[in-house]
Design goal:
Largest sheet: 2 strands, antiparallel
CATH topology of the largest domain: Arc Repressor Mutant, subunit A
CATH superfamily of the largest domain: Winged helix-like DNA-binding domain superfamily/Winged helix DNA-binding domain
Strand order of the largest sheet: 1-2
Strand content: under 5%
Structural class: mainly alpha
Low-confidence stretches: 1-21, 113-120
Number of strands: 2
CATH architecture of the largest domain: Orthogonal Bundle
Radius of gyration: 20 Å
Shape: elongated
Mean pLDDT: 76
Length: 232
């Protein structure tokens, strides 16, 4: 089986895959059949749909973006080489991410990193970190000392501006690995909490805390940005 793993941004939408239908048994069967036919349009759409989330997930287990991207490349190759072993007991998406997780852990071992402990540390990163700025909230009265800034006074064009989107992206990139992965999977990729918990092997409460902290940090970064803009 021969494929070229490259940018497929110019390829058309394959009927076997769409963001709306991805994950259904019928869609998975159609996609597997297309891949077995060496349909590069189908592969391209699959890569476009999951590439970013795969890289973010790999970053939990490996030390750099470059290594994470290599692991993702290995994941796609492994997927193509093992199509005949897909039995449909889980969704194609879950299968792809399981391949990725196994390869990322193995790569971490080869890099002499203790995967079980490092993965646990990253998935429970900032375990003692408060979800909100402790200087802005009074736990005794359960009230805000400093009320979070309302965005209602910010012009809509400013909220939607490219500069604002860039700040959001920077805030997400700057999050700890587990928080970044959870917010990307939930808020960007549209995964359910059950899917995230199953893929990362974490509890619902852990997933909820990671997502809340990630969203709080992104919001705080945007509040600081909008405050700077308002004072300009």
């Amino acid at each position: 089986m021969s494929y070229t793993l490259m940018s497929h941004s110019n390829l058309g939408q394959h009927p076997a895959l769409s963001s709306a239908s991805a994950g259904s048994p019928a869609n998975d069967a159609s996609m597997i059949a297309a891949l077995c036919r060496r349909d590069e349009h189908a592969l391209g759409q699959l890569i476009e749909l999951y590439q970013g989330a795969l890289v973010h997930t790999a970053m939990i287990y490996v030390a750099s973006l470059a290594v994470a991207e290599e692991v993702v490349q290995e994941t796609w190759i492994s997927l193509l080489q093992s199509l005949d072993r897909f039995e449909g007991r889980c969704s194609l998406k879950t299968w792809i991410f399981r391949i990725l997780t196994n390869r990322a852990k193995a790569r971490g071992v080869r890099e002499a990193r203790s995967v079980p402990f490092s993965a646990l540390r990253r998935l429970n990163d900032d375990a003692d970190e408060p979800s909100v700025d402790p200087t802005a909230f009074d736990p005794s009265s359960q009230q805000w000392i400093t009320t979070p800034q309302s965005w209602e006074s910010i012009p809509e064009e400013r909220v939607l501006a490219q500069e604002t989107r860039t700040h959001i992206q920077q805030a997400v990139v700057g999050l700890p690995p587990a928080q970044r992965t959870v917010i990307v999977l939930r808020d960007i990729e549209g995964w359910s909490s059950e899917e995230v918990c199953g893929m990362l092997n974490i509890s619902e409460s852990n997933q909820r805390v990671l997502l809340h902290r990630a969203r709080s940090k992104v919001r705080q970064a945007l509040e600081q940005y909008f405050d700077t803009v308002a004072r300009a």
